[in-house]
Amino acid sequence: MPEGGSGGVDLQPDVERLHRAVRREPSDPVEGRESPPWFFVAAIAVVLFWGGWYLGRYGGEFGLATHVAFAGRQPGITASANAQAAAAVSNPIEAGGRVYQKNCTACHQPTGKGLPGAFPPIVGSEWVTGAPETLVRILLHGLQGPVDVAGATYNGAMPAWQEILKDEEIAALATYLRQLAPNAAPPVDADAVAALRDAHADRAAAWTAEELRAAQPASGSQPPAPPRSGS
Question: What is the 3-state secondary structure (H, E, C) of 117-165?
């Protein structure tokens, strides 16, 4: 058998020659395990430290300053609310007018004449000048569905004010509406509002015209029923 040499036959097995070629190749890189740069880690640490300091310095939930400030203002808020209630009792027309201008004029207009086809009028409305309990119920819980007012039919929804206005304010508003010229109905007392609020404490839905008529005693002043079809 001839010896291996220059120009001779390579007697090494094929397996060894293949492995030598493999060992000469560099290893495949391992992705996802590289260490991040030190400056990136340092930047994250600085941002976290600054964020914690900022929240501790200006976050109201981390200190008593916010709660102390609210506690200091609470007596003033309570005093203002009590003053408004007292004003509603002493001068219901003036107080009721303020409530009306703030909450009602967008729909019923400053004149109380409403918008034809959209919002019913206040002046000349049998729902306003009739039994005071009817108007108080509407102000407390709202009104929905078709209703006949001053000879016209309206089909909309009025919001409830029981969670927003106190008894004195609702009484003042009802008195203002019942005496908004040319209306000339008697005033409404805050005790009557409180009694109706307690009587319907479990009610959540707005009233309908049929329910309001049924809620009034037979001897009470009721708005007229709508005309029957075909009459």
Answer: CCECCCCCCHHHHCCHHHHHHHHHHCEEEEEEECCEEEEEEECCCCCCC
Residue burial 135-154, b: 16+ Cβ < 10 Å; e: rest = bbbbbbbbbbeebbbbeeeb
CB 174 within 8 A of CB 135: yes
Cα–Cα distance list, 55 to 48, 64, 164, 217 (Å)? 11, 14, 35, 62
Q: Characterise 37 by phi-psi region: left (phi > 0), alpha (psi -120 to 50), beta (else).
A: beta
pTM exceeds 0.90: no
Provide the Cα torsion 168, 119, 133, 150; round to 10°.
Answer: 130
**What is the CB-side half-sphere exposure of residue 144 using CA atoms within 13 A?**
8
Question: Which pLDDT tens digit goes with each residue over 101-130?
Answer: 999 999 999 999 999 989 999 999 999 999
Q: For residues 99 and 113, what is the distance between their CA atoms, to the nearest angstrom? A: 17
